[in-house]
Each structure stands twice: as C-alpha cells, then as structure tokens.
Amino acid sequence: MAKFLVKRIFMALLTVFLVATITFFLMNAVPGNPWLSEKTPPQSVIDALNAKYGLDKPLPEQYVMYIGNLLHGDFGTSIKMSKNRPVVDMITEKFPVSASLGIVAVAWATLLGIPLGCIAAYRRGKFIDSLLRVVTTLGVSLPSFVVATTLMVVFCGGIEALHFFPSSYSASNGIIGYILPCFCLGLYPMCYVARLTRSSMLDAINQEYIKTAYAKGLKTFPILFKHALRNALIPVITYLGPLTAFTLCGGFVVENVFNIPGLGKAFVQSITALDYPMIMGTAIFLATFIVFMNLIVDILYKVVDPRINLAKGAD
User: Which stretches make up the ABC transmembrane type-1 domain (predicted)?
Assistant: First the structure.
C-alpha cells in the first residue's frame, strides 16, 4: 500500500508539472496580448506593462521564472481581471461558490442515477427500462447550454405563469437559488451514471453468485442493492472521481448562463481577457484536484471490493 501511494504521488506531481508546462506554452501561443482592447493604449504603455509583469522576457525565461515561483506556492497575480490581486486569493474566494453548487449537483446525480440504473437493469426490456433509456439518452445528448437556456426561458420569466426562480444566482436567494443551476450541473452526470449503472448491473445479475442467491431464497432488494450493486459500482466510481473534480470546480457554461460568480465563470473570463496568471492558476488547480480525486477513487476500489490488490498497481 505504501509503495502504491508513493508511486501515485510521484505520478500526480509529474502530471501536474506536464499540465503546467503544456498550458503555459499553449497559452502563450494564442495571438494577441492582455492589453489589446477597444481602447488600446500607446505602444510605450504596452511596453511598460510587459516589463512590469515580465512579459517582455524570452518565453523560456518566463517559463523558468513561473515554475520557480510555482514551486514556492506563488501562482502570480492577476494582470487583467483584478489587477495585482494574487491568483490564490481569487481561487480561494471563488472555489467555495462553485463547490457549494457542485456538491449538491453530484449528490443528487449519484443518489438518483444509481437507483434508476438498478431499476432499469432489473426491469430490462419492460416499459420502465425503455422510458429510462429514452430519458437518460436525452439527458446525455443535450448540451448544458441548451438545458440551462431552456430552464432560464421557462422558469425565469419567459413564461409568466411559471416564473418560479430568480434569473441569476445569489446567496441571498437561499435554497431556491440553487435549484436550477444544480439541476443543470447534475443532469448529464445523473443520466450517465444511470446508463453506466444499468450496463454494469446487467453484467452482475447474470453472474452465477446472483443465481445462487436467488436459489437460496434471498429477496430481490438485498440481492440487487447488496450483492450485485457492490460489484457493479467499480465503473461508476471510476467515472465519479474526475466528474466530482470538474463539477466542484464549476460548470463553465452553467455559471455563465446563471451569472454565478464561481471558479468556472472566472476561468472563462480569464481566457477571454488573456489573463495569463489566472489561466495558469485555474488550470493547475483543476488538474491537481482531478489527480487527487483519481487517487481517492483508487482507494475506494479497495473499500468496495476487498479482493482488489492495490499493491499490484505499484509494480
């Protein structure tokens, strides 16, 4: 176990380093600079700004300086969105907003998607199975901006009789302000989890040990949700790891549509504004979070199925 953890931590650090390197050079390959706008300042001002933020140096030198600062925990300061404000402070401020929505979205998607998948597998070929397959296929196929925009039009003023929710997110709105954004964030994961669970359950319920459990006279509920589901959860857990990281860091489209001041919206704005430190900081934070969640997933494998030997993965 210790050897496995050491190897995974080393691979995690290498992955984050590669993400930082690739993001840095791709970001700087984008045409333009942060100072170009409708009112572009004189060239002398642009040169002074580039010198202030170190953008006048050769790209390899900028890269070495950034990695050096990164090793000391310095993500730099925002150069456009919130000038001279540390990127770490901006991430610390905006991530809890995204995480509060993401936790609710992942929770309802998981708690609803897994039982629906089990029901669809148990009632395979019946009406309820066909209905759930149609619904989940639609949920997986519809882009998030279509779902968000449709809900905004229907429930936020487009149809007066159904104007139940505020048109933009605000902490002062209480629970009602979470409903539409959390529904949009969780719809695709819920449908995908349901489809994944159904597929895994179909494999599990056809195994010999399930037939033996039926032959012993066990009831359907414990057979499905105790014996079959435990083995069927492995692919679901694999999917939920990176999904949780992405969702907690914010749905880029959903946060923009509902005007949520979270990390996802800030990331989109930083790309539009070419705010290099903010782009780098957010990308590295997301990559680190995904790597961490994948490590948690590997450990959960052992919890769900004790037969799995993590030590073999370290060889």
Answer: 95-301
Average pLDDT, integer, range 179-202:
89
For residues 26 and 84, give the distance between their C-alpha atoms in angstroms, rounded to a whole number. 23
Distance CA(296)–CA(232), nearest Å, equals 18
What is residue 1's DSSP assignment? Answer: -
Contact present, 38 and 295 (Cβ < 8 Å) = no
User: CA 269 to CA 251: how far, in whole Å?
Assistant: 13
CB 100 within 8 A of CB 255: no
Quick: pLDDT tens for 71-93. Answer: 888 888 888 877 778 999 999 98
Report which DSSP code applies to 31: S
143-155 per-position pLDDT tens digit = 888 888 888 888 7
Cα 99-103-104 angle, rounded to 5 deg: 125
- How far is it, in rounded angstroms, from Cα 146 to Cα 119? 28
Closest CA to 55 of 73, 81, 32, 37: 32
pTM of the model: 0.78
Looking up tokens 């925009």 gives 149
Convert the pLDDT of each residue in 35-70 to its tens digit: 776 577 788 888 888 888 888 888 899 899 999 988
CB count within 10 Å of CB 132 equals 20
Phi, psi (5° rounding) for residue 85? Answer: -95, 135
Find, among 199, 198, 224, the residue nearest to 213 by Cα: 224
Q: Does position 260 have pLDDT exceeding 70, yes or no?
A: yes
Contact (CB, 8 A) for 236 and 197: yes
Angstrom distances, CA of residue 13 to CA of 146, 278, 289: 37, 20, 12
